[in-house]
Design goal:
about 375 residues, mainly alpha, elongated, transducer, cell membrane, transmembrane, receptor
Length: about 375
């Protein structure tokens, strides 16, 4: 038989394709056993996103024979589940409290700053208290941010948050004590108070308070912390147990001093009431109201801070965290009521607020100059 060149090319092409088909069939038959065992043990879902498919090739086959390519699955390692930290309702409550504290005290600072007539020593102390409470509120907000939005395992973040809270709340307590001392001196030295008590002396006292509180806040950053030894931690990590006890005892001493000063204020007020016989009835009513107000202020201060101070003395980091939250939250609420007690009740500040908000002053607002002895 005589074949032309075209027919021979078709014939050999057909033989080549037939050889490829037979090779693929043989390879499929050889791998059918292992494939069936694989499919029976762990079936693969072609629509599973964790399984990707690629063409596998034997690198040892470098001959001119057709390369057998098989579709083999490449199992990707499982994705690591990201642990989402659950937000504690207590932390939310502290953050909301911090926001309220910041708004209230920012308003007080703005009124004092933009009212030139409010520059008496009493208003300097009120402004210092407002700054301390404002920083305390910002510290609570930053603590929430650092806990849930920033890597809290970084030592700098933890020390910054705790240092700010210690400094701010310590300054708040000491400024309340300074205001109490100011009220006592204004009654005890009523005739010479305004001559002896100067603005410069008030600024010196405020500077002393802030230097002391900033030093307390820097102690954890200077090495007095429990980051390397959790067994020495207090209920507020990274403050050590000894430092927490020292702060709590200091607060108890401050509270005892405030009680003594308020008791002396009440005695002086009643003595003045007895000396003024003409206005006996009016003064008696006014004095009784003032004593009731002082008692309410002292009880509110004690109710806010005493539970946390006592718990800091007896507890440590092994105690349930819910007890810590239950005592910390009332302590922070003290900074919520401070602007109401010491600022918004003041007629001069009320007048400035009315002028800033609506440009007028209510007729029932007392315009009598308020002294430090007024409660």
């Amino acid at each position: 038989m005589i074949f032309n060149v075209r027919e021979l090319n078709v014939y050999f092409s057909f033989r080549h394709r037939l050889a490829m088909i037979l090779s693929l069939a043989a390879a499929a038959a050889m791998s059918s056993g292992s494939s069936s065992s694989l499919n029976s043990s762990s079936p693969l879902d072609p629509f599973d996103s964790s399984t990707s498919w690629s063409l596998g090739e034997d690198p040892s086959n470098s001959s001119s024979e057709p390369v057998v390519r098989t579709l083999t699955p490449e199992l990707q390692p499982g994705t690591t589940a990201v642990a989402v930290q659950e937000v504690s309702p207590w932390d939310i409550a502290l953050c909301v409290t911090g926001t309220l504290i910041s708004c209230e005290n920012a308003l007080v600072i703005a009124v004092l700053f933009y009212t030139p007539t409010l520059r008496a020593p009493m208003f300097i102390l009120i402004g210092s208290l407002a700054v301390a409470d404002l920083l305390a509120g910002l510290g609570l907000i930053l603590n929430f941010v650092f806990t849930y939005l920033v890597d809290s395992s970084v030592e700098f973040v933890t020390l910054l948050s705790v240092g700010l809270l210690i400094s701010a709340f310590s300054a708040s307590v000491l400024n309340i004590l300074a205001i109490t001392v100011d009220r006592y001196l204004s009654l005890y030295n009523a005739l010479t108070y305004h001559t002896e008590r100067t603005v410069t002396f008030t600024y010196v006292m405020v500077i002393f308070i802030w230097v002391s509180c900033l030093t307390l806040g820097l102690l954890p950053a200077l090495g007095w912390n429990c980051l390397k030894d959790d067994s020495t931690c207090s209920i507020c990590r990274p403050v050590t147990k000894n430092n927490a006890v020292a702060l709590a005892v200091t607060f108890l001493l401050v509270f005892a001093l405030m009680m003594q000063l308020y008791l002396q204020i009440c005695k002086i007020a009643f003595r003045h009431a007895q000396q003024i016989a003409v206005q006996h009835q009016f003064v008696a009513i006014s004095t009784t109201k003032g004593v009731s107000t002082l008692s309410a202020i002292l009880c509110a201060f004690g109710a806010c801070w005493l539970p946390f101070a006592m718990y800091s003395i007896v507890a440590d980091s092994t105690y349930p965290v819910i007890y810590t939250y239950a005592t910390v939250l009332p302590a922070t609420c003290c900074s919520v009521i401070n602007p109401i007690i010491y600022a918004f009740r003041n007629p001069d500040i009320q007048k400035s607020l009315w002028m800033a908000c609506c440009g007028c002053v209510p007729s029932n607002l007392s315009l009598r100059p308020r002294t430090s002895s007024d409660v």
